[in-house]
Amino acid sequence: MPKLHVKKGDLVQVIAGKDKGAKGRVIAAYPREDRVVVEGVNMIKKHSKETHQGPRGAKTGGVQTMEAPIHVSNVKKLKDDEKPAEKKADKKADAKTGEDN
């Protein structure tokens, strides 16, 4: 099975295609097809028929907007900004005040 350079939950940017420049999180990865689903990218409209075979007897029909998979070569992994940056700021603040003296 091939290995992808991104995984579910990674922050990526689209570098090719109609949504070039868009950023989003990876919702799902399909390594066998070399494709990933990115949040808010490659939106398609899917038409579903109203059926009565779902739970409790009914499923609503209509047009649903959803993300379609894109090729993994069209996305670039970005660095996450969720890492805590307060530690560096606290050290600098202590140095400026000179509380150790």
TrEMBL record:
Composition bias type Basic and acidic residues, residue spans: 77-101
Region called Disordered, residue ranges: 46-101
Pfam family, one: KOW
Coiled coil region boundaries: none
Alphabetical UniProt keywords: Ribonucleoprotein, Ribosomal protein, RNA-binding, rRNA-binding
Span of domain KOW: 5-32
Alphabetized PANTHER family for the sequence: MITOCHONDRIAL RIBOSOMAL PROTEIN L24 (PTHR12903)
Complex formation: Part of the 50S ribosomal subunit.
Name under which the protein is recorded: Large ribosomal subunit protein uL24
